[in-house]
């Protein structure tokens, strides 16, 4: 293999095996810190050795065995003053066969639930999941969320310490706790995806493909582990149908392109087909859909239309009506109003949007929606003020450019 082929293989193996190795070591030693450090050392060893010796026939087994030995070495160093009996036991464990790779899926699932435990703050869950399950480095995670490396490292270190001190169990929740805990895992993955889909910081790329791709990969992993969960399938479908439009979402000049103006020929047909198939499977299941399944169905309606004029807005509105019953949040109401505008006109939609003023006054999309509706009604002065407020609140550079252009086109 050429050096480039080896580098590509290491990157691929890192994506495929990082979570497996960390999960296996966490199960074996009961310590996230030891598992993370040993896994990182094993991959560093691979980077050193594989270019000269070649990629092993079973990279996952090689990395697991190497990481297992690194962990044993660390434990031995930390416990070198302890009794000979413990050292003999560790030496026996070191000579033992590496952990059974067939049982890793359960270990990985436990790792996901541990990183997304509700005892941890939401942003901490995101960071820990990206590090332990996704294998992103601390600098990569820090850049994604626009914080200093040292601050992100401290956040992850504190999270691992809290898991250890609070004795948060490394296990899949009981059957009665599982639905609530799965929803917490999906919320973390959705946060990761949304940060990539429309990055919040002005100092970063407006669309972060690295984050959307990682969120999709992790959601695929969870779906492999929980194939019968409708909301997992729904979230994956939602991500795929959103990601399918990525190439058409930002213009060559760096301006956000709204759904109605996108070049639909640039959409990824393979991702759309996969997303539609997941939506159809959930409909065929005959089970009442959850939030992510309904959002995926809305996206399926949009991506089924060859032209924005072919959009079945009555179906979109019916799905939003269904979603409002599950999630009566002001953001859902705002998105529903956009569908109302297409069916009942801007005046009716504006009345619905204005009722949300008290709860969404600090949300840029609220002001952007009002600005567009006021523009349609010919109320240019009010529209301009709403655009100004939306621009002031928006952090995404592509979105700001789009809003500024629309404002400047007002008469």
From TrEMBL:
Residues annotated as domain RNA polymerase sigma factor 70 region 4 type: 113-163
InterPro entries in UniProt: DUF6596, RNA_pol_sigma70_r2, RNA_pol_sigma70_r4_t2, RNA_pol_sigma_r2, RNA_pol_sigma_r3/r4-like, TPR-like_helical_dom_sf, WH-like_DNA-bd_sf
Gene Ontology molecular function, alphabetical: DNA binding; sigma factor activity
- DUF6596 domain sequence ranges: 181-281
**Would the keyword Disulfide bond be found if you checked this record's keyword annotation?**
no
Protein family: Belongs to the sigma-70 factor family. ECF subfamily.
- Top-level division of the source organism's lineage: Bacteria
Keyword Transcription attached: yes
The name this protein goes by in its record: RNA polymerase sigma factor
Q: Which residues form the RNA polymerase sigma-70 region domain?
A: 20-80
Q: Which Pfam families match?
A: DUF6596, Sigma70_r2, Sigma70_r4_2
> Which GO biological-process labels does this protein carry?
DNA-templated transcription initiation
Q: What are the record keywords, sorted?
A: Sigma factor, Transcription, Transcription regulation
Signal peptide positions are none
């Amino acid at each position: 293999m050429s050096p480039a082929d080896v580098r590509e293989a290491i990157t691929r193996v890192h994506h495929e095996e990082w979570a497996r190795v960390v999960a296996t070591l966490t199960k074996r030693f009961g310590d996230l810190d030891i598992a993370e450090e040993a896994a990182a050392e094993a991959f560093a060893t691979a980077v050193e050795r594989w270019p000269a010796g070649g990629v092993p026939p079973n990279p996952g087994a090689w990395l697991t065995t190497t990481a297992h030995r690194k962990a044993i070495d660390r434990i031995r160093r930390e416990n070198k003053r302890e009794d000979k009996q413990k050292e003999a036991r560790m030496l026996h464990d070191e000579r033992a066969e590496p952990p059974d790779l067939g049982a890793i899926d359960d270990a990985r699932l436990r790792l996901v639930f541990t990183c997304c435990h509700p005892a941890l703050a939401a942003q901490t869950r995101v960071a820990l999941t990206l590090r332990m399950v996704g294998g992103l480095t601390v600098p990569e995670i820090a850049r994604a969320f626009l914080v200093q490396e040292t601050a992100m490292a401290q956040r992850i270190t504190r999270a691992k310490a809290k898991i250890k001190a609070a004795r948060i169990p490394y296990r899949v929740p009981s059957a009665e706790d599982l639905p609530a805990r799965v929803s917490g895992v999906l919320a973390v993955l959705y946060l990761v995806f949304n940060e990539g889909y429309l990055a919040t910081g002005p100092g970063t790329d407006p669309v972060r493909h690295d984050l959307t791709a990682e969120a999709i990969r992790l959601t695929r992993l969870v779906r492999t582990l929980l194939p019968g969960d409708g909301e997992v399938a729904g979230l994956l479908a939602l991500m795929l149908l959103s990601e399918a439009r990525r190439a058409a979402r930002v213009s060559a000049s760096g301006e956000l392109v709204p759904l109605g103006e996108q070049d639909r020929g640039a959409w990824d047909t393979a991702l759309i087909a996969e997303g539609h198939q997941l939506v159809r499977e959930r409909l065929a299941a005959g089970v009442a859909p959850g939030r992510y399944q309904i959002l995926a169905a809305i996206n399926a309606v949009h991506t089924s239309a060859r032209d924005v004029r072919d959009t079945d807005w009555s179906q979109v509105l019916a799905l939003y009506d269904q979603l409002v019953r599950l999630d009566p949040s002001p953001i859902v109401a705002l998105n529903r109003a956009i569908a109302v505008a297409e069916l009942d006109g801007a005046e009716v939609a504006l009345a619905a949007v204005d009722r949300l003023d008290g709860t969404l006054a600090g949300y840029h999309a609220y002001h952007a929606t009002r600005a567009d509706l006021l523009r349609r009604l010919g109320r240019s002065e009010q529209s301009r003020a709403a655009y100004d407020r939306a621009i002031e609140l928006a952090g995404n550079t592509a979105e700001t450019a789009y809003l500024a252009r629309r404002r400047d086109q007002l008469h």
